[in-house]
Amino acid sequence: MKNLAVIFPGLDYSLEKPLLYYAGKSVRNFGFEVVEVSYGKLPEGDRQKVLDYALLAANVAVNKISFEAYDNIFFISKGNGTAVAGSILQNMIQKVYHILFAPINDAVSSFSEDCLVFTSSKDDTIHIDEVMKRHGEIAFELHVSKEADHNLELGDALKDIFMLRKVQEICQRYIGRRISLKEAGDETSNC
């Protein structure tokens, strides 16, 4: 099977930071080809203008990919990258699994049953009540921390490492289950 992961960083959260670095390492260990989206130099100023520019840059990268050549496609995104990936997903024909780390409000409408979402009730970039409402409408896998910040960190190095390990273990199980279902020809399960 041929597998692809496209990684969308946040605007202030690069591909080298822990959540995305280790998620990328995990999918590589599963034998995935990986495309790391770069937004280039982003303009200063209005947040929506910056997001629009990031989306344009991401579309340029994504349009070079022959998605039909892959059996499994995963998007992995963090922060503002969750909104960028969510916008691109709206135009996708292929089934795409999406792992979202600390999504922002603009991404909530893109959540589907093929999503794995990590967020925190202390993250001020998302309205947790909107996430819970969407979760009530669509059965996606959701993990909510009561203590973590927008980087899914707790403020203590050892606790942060433990949280990172827990998050990556959940991601690896999620990826492994999807690949196993696809190999077995059963894509009906959403868990």
- Mean pLDDT across all amino acids: 93
CATH superfamily: Alpha/Beta hydrolase fold, catalytic domain
Total discrete domains? 1
Level-1 CATH class name: Alpha Beta
Spatial extent as radius of gyration: 16 Å
Largest sheet geometry: 6 strands, parallel
The termini sit apart by 21 Å
Strand order of the largest sheet: 2-1-3-4-5-6
How many individual helices?
A: 5
Fold and architecture overview:
This protein is an alpha/beta fold and 191 residues long. The protein has a single domain, classed as Alpha/Beta hydrolase fold, catalytic domain (Rossmann fold). The chain is built from 5 helices and 6 strands, in the order βαβαβαββαβα. The chain has a 6-stranded parallel β-sheet with strand order 2-1-3-4-5-6, with helices on both faces. Helix 1 (18-29) runs parallel beside helix 5 (157-184) and helix 2 (47-62) crosses helix 3. It starts with a strand and ends in a 7-residue tail after the last helix.
